[in-house]
Fold this sequence. Notes:
This protein is α/β, with parallel strands linked by helices and about 210 residues long. The protein contains 6 helices and 7 strands. The protein has a single domain, classed as 3-Layer(aba) Sandwich (Rossmann fold). It has helices at about 5-25, 40-45, 65-80, 90-100, 140-150, 170-175; strands at about 55-60, 85-90, 110, 125-130, 150-160, 185-190, 195-200.
Amino acid sequence: xxxxxxxxxxxxxxxxxxxxxxxxxxxxxxxxxxxxxxxxxxxxxxxxxxxxxxxxxxxxxxxxxxxxxxxxxxxxxxxxxxxxxxxxxxxxxxxxxxxxxxxxxxxxxxxxxxxxxxxxxxxxxxxxxxxxxxxxxxxxxxxxxxxxxxxxxxxxxxxxxxxxxxxxxxxxxxxxxxxxxxxxxxxxxxxxxxxxxxxxxxxxxxx
Length: 207
Ligand SMILES: C[S@@+](CC[C@H](N)C(=O)[O-])C[C@H]1O[C@@H](n2cnc3c(N)ncnc32)[C@H](O)[C@@H]1O
């Protein structure tokens, strides 16, 4: 009988599966786990910026080689919002690539596991995928991001990624089932299949 892995075992599996593939990918999109050209990247990922409604700090959980951060900053600027990029990555060599891409130091782009990492500050926007945590720990991951990473009044942006053959997993229904108030959602399709879903939760501000 297969036993449930620990988070450390889950992280080791993630690194075994992704790290080499991302580091040796033929282009920068592959270094973030994406297959396709720049136009497909923009089609699949620009939808994340639907959740950006003001200027602020943007923290990417699992920032890989930093391409999403770079892209989100540029797309938000086109929409009139200035974002300051920050991130966390399990893989040290990928985090190093992200630092080079964004000309950032280790106090902007950190190495660590989001389920255990202790932030030295809070962020206005935090983006993550649920898959960075074990299935039975995903509600706790959302709670942790809201309670420990977000600044008061901040916005947690959950993403789910699919492909043309496998639709992105639902987000809104599980989040509601776990008792969270979903403030908004967006999705993008390719050939009739949803390839990216985004849902966001707002942290109550201080009144
Ligand atoms: C699919 S890539 C996402 C790249 C980019 N942020 C995007 O949204 O396109 C997921 C990244 O999350 C990282 N990751 C996985 N589990 C993590 C964890 N527990 N803490 C921090 N990063 C993690 C992986 O190493 C991988 O680089």
